[in-house]
């Protein structure tokens, strides 16, 4: 028998990154990967990620790709359609 444990998330953000997310343009990630010759990874990012990438939610993925969000200018989500 498997024991299930209910996990409850607080309605309040756990830290400031959840409250004030920082987004970067997918195109900037693709450009960084292509500049390092990682075309297959760039193609995957192009297919799988949204136009604006939340750096908090995707921290592990960005780390795995070797992309430092601090080196990319944050995107202005308010000026983007959709």
What report would you give on this structure?
- This protein has 82 residues and is mainly alpha-helical.
- It has one domain.
- Helices cover 38% and strands 7% of the residues.
- It is built from four helices and two strands.
- The chain has helices at residues 16-19, 26-35, 39-48, 59-65; strands at residues 23-25, 52-54.
- The protein has a two-stranded antiparallel ribbon with strand order 1-2.
- Helix 2 (26-35) packs antiparallel against helix 3.
- It is globular and about 35 Å long.
- It starts with 15 loop residues before the first helix and ends in a 17-residue tail after the last helix.
- Mean pLDDT is 78; it is low at 1-13.
The backbone outline, from C-alpha atoms, is globular
**Number of beta strands:** 2
What portion of the residues fall into strands of 2 or more residues? 5-15%
**What's the N-to-C terminus distance?**
46 Å
Element order, helices and strands? Answer: HEHHEH
Largest sheet: 2 strands, antiparallel
Number of separate helices: 4
* Helical residues, percent: 25-40%
Spans where pLDDT lies below 50 across 5 or more residues: 1-13
* Class from secondary-structure proportions: mainly alpha
In a nutshell, what does this entry contain?
With 82 residues, the protein is mostly helical.
What secondary-structure arrangement, pairings included, does this model have?
Elements: H1 16-19, E1 23-25, H2 26-35, H3 39-48, E2 52-54, H4 59-65
Antiparallel strand pairs: 1-2
């Amino acid at each position: 028998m498997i024991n299930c444990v209910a996990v409850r998330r607080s309605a309040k953000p756990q830290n400031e990154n959840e409250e004030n997310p920082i987004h970067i343009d997918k195109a900037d990630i693709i450009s960084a990967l292509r500049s390092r010759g990682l075309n297959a990874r760039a193609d995957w990012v192009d297919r799988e990620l949204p136009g604006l990438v939340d750096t908090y939610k995707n921290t592990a993925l960005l780390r795995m790709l070797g992309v430092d969000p601090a080196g990319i200018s944050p995107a202005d989500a308010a000026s983007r359609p959709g």
